[in-house]
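Researcher: Let's do a round of design. I'm pasting the structure tokens now; please hold your answer until I've finished.
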């Protein structure tokens, strides 16, 4: 177990990073710390299970491959400990079909799996995944006074050029040549950092924009 010091005064809560690869857990841990999480990293199933039994965490990232154990065992432990409300970001080098299966397992255990990320990690996706629960909490906190993200807020974002496009190259695996690109919408806000399309696209559709 290791704690990564968070360099900002804005504390989002305590983040548990469960990852057996030292490079990956260092990257995720430092991103979490920069976003304001009090970040604790665990390299094994045993360390992670001990922490979950004795400490309180506001969020968790979980690599599905943990040596002799797999992430599914830890998901079952989380359910057994009644930690269902804790947001979980699942990370794996497995193909999408496996990730979809894991998501269904998590749903069956009534866990809060908020994102599934594939390796190699996209750092913007990691940031967005770690910010997503904070976004939903902010919306819930302000719901009584009115929607946190209103139609006017999105219109203002358009006028202020807060939305932008990232191009993700598509590679032909037979030739290793770029054969195209995906255009990915992003929203950079002063309140929440980069907001995932999974969050803002439904709002854009809801408001008829």
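Researcher: That's everything. Go ahead.
Model: Designed sequence:
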């Amino acid at each position: 177990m290791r704690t990564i010091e968070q360099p900002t005064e804005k504390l989002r809560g305590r983040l548990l990073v469960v990852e057996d690869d030292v490079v990956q857990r260092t990257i995720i841990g430092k991103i979490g710390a920069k976003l304001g999480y009090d970040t604790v990293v665990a390299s094994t199933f045993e360390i992670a299970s001990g922490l979950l039994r004795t400490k309180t965490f506001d969020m968790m990232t979980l690599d599905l491959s943990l040596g002799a154990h797999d992430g599914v065992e830890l998901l079952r432990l989380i359910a057994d400990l009644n930690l269902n409300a804790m947001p979980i970001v699942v990370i794996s080098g497995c193909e999408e079909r496996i990730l979809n299966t894991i998501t269904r397992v998590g749903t069956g255990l009534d866990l809060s799996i908020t994102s599934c990320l594939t390796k190699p990690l996209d750092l913007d996706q990691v940031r967005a995944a770690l910010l997503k629960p904070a976004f939903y909490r902010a919306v819930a906190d302000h719901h009584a006074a009115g929607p946190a993200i209103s139609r006017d807020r999105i219109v203002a974002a358009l006028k202020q050029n807060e939305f932008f496009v990232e191009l993700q190259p598509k590679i032909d695996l037979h030739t290793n040549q770029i054969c195209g690109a995906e255009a990915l919408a992003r929203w950079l806000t002063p309140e929440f950092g980069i907001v995932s399309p999974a969050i803002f696209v439904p709002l854009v559709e809801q408001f008829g924009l």
